[in-house]
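hey can u check if this looks right to u? its 363 residues, i copy pasted from the old doc so theres a chance i mangled smth
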Amino acid sequence: MISSSSVSSSSVSPSSVSPSSGGPGPARAAEAAGCGQRTALICGVGGQDGAYLAAHLLELGYRVVGTSRDAQASGFSGLVRLGIRDRVTVESMTLVDFRSTMQAIARHRPDEIYNLAGQTSVGLSFSQPVETFESIVIGTVNLLEAIRMLGRPIRLYNAGSSEMFGDTGMEPASERTVLRPCSPYGIAKATSFWQVAQYRQAYGIAACTGILFNHESPLRPERFVTQKIVAGACRIARGEEQTLSLGDLSVHRDWGWAPEYVVAMHRMLQLETLEDFVIATGRTSSLEEFVGAAFAAVGLDWRRHVVRDPGLVRPSEIGCGRADTSRAAERLGWTAHHVMPDVVRMMVEARLAGQQALPRRAA
């Protein structure tokens, strides 16, 4: 508990990851083997993590249902790029509407629910704090209440964030680190974390939160700084632009490879007794190092092209994000195999190739 004080291409590494052995306890393994095909409901299947998780679960033999606010209007580009759109059942559902949430769960009768929906941008949360809080907090409690009222043995994974910790300085954050969020996004994620913990304790709901540090892939949109950097470096290399504007390059983060992180999400729900985990690589780099790696991958010196823009600096910022991943390694048998330089290289190669088919095998 945390204290309150595959499709592949020659241009991209195929992301064949072999995390160390681990997974469900014997009771859960026997249950999975004897109950036939399991159904997973992924809230937010249109995002980066939702797409990679859907691909991973399909490979494990799951029936996958994905939700979006308007399934008819959504293009589900991530599922399309991974070549799995026709294998995923899509459902219109909005988590801030309890009736919509309850109906979708009752209709599809999932064994597992993955809550990956809600506002996902830290930067955007400063200009949209109310929408951020509602989409994350109300959405999470609606899922918990629906599971409680239906009375079915549904297991819930909730997407937390390292932003919940705030700035821990040089101290690696673990499952017991005090939460001191310093952004509207981090505050909302911390609130949803405590909602999950309370329902687990008070009602016996099988629910847990994955506290994931930064994880990237070619599916990241450009509103995230990592993809902005990769896209900018590639455009400059092609002569389409001359400069790239960025904010504070001194911040440090733990960057991992998204297809690996969805493996940890699934493993968390296979434990006999659910608990919360920090998921990260355990290696921290500065944003300047990330920028340098991206420009070096296209044969350029970043110092000649990057322009500092004070307007891009957030009102409050976490200076350094470090993670203690020992519990995930011990209890889940999960460790990250790709670290920041690998992630940058694969993102740049995918961008330069302009490929439509991305690596989707996670394990």
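Confidence is low (pLDDT under 50) at residues 3-27, 29-34, 355-363.
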